[in-house]
Amino acid sequence: MELSPQSRRTVRPPDGNLLRAPLPANSAEAAAASSWTPGGNFRAYASKSGLSTLLKLARESTKGRHKACPYRSLRGEVEAQMDRVYLNWHDVEELITKVVMQLNTPYDALLLITRGGIVPGGMIAEALKMKDVLTAAVVFQSGPGVRAEMSWPRFQQFPADALLNGKKVLIVDNIWDRGRTIVTVKSRVQGSGATAETAVLHWKQRQNLFENEKPDYYAELTEDWVYYPWQRIDDSDDLVSLRPPTPELS
């Protein structure tokens, strides 16, 4: 799908339109929506409770706050012109709700990929009233003659098989770019005997390396360089030198 600059932030997944028609009064979904509980039909609940209207008002109130500027990617072979898009917390809440409204609940556990999946995963856990929240950390090592883009993934942290075996697990990250991290995590979750689904806020469809893999749930398509409100805007973490310990005062 070719995305124009005007449409980049408004493209939605096929079943991800936030502004839904009212549910029929006699529908089973309307009955379920009247008293949503964890594991229930959140989509019906959100539609009936007017959450979509509130999010529409929030979106209107934040129009014009996002200013994009030309940005040249520094990531190896990715030389295409990209835009920087800065999101605020209103945007994140809207994206989270759009994901939650699609989910095939209930889940036995959430698995958050560090670091990008920590905040959105926590918000999803809060929305679903879930307490069984796990984390996974994957690194792609680089060094002399080895580029991180080509290295083999290595787990720094992953839950024990006993915490996953036989469970339905939702894997959460902020963005599906090339897909290597989340596909690696999904494969190991399935290898632990669990059923795995994936959810992200953004999917960079044209960057995806896996022909037969894509997120099960996502809020928006994008090809922009997205900055989330929990990130450092200057992205200079690697430039910060470690300071020596402060000597104790006698």
TrEMBL record:
InterPro entries cross-referenced by the UniProt entry: PRTase-like (IPR029057), PRTase_dom (IPR000836)
Ranges of residues in domain Phosphoribosyltransferase: 91-231
Superkingdom to which the source organism belongs: Bacteria
A Pfam match: Pribosyltran
Single Gene Ontology MF annotation: glycosyltransferase activity
Keywords per UniProt: Glycosyltransferase, Transferase
Protein name: Phosphoribosyltransferase domain-containing protein
Organism: Caldilineaceae bacterium SB0661_bin_32
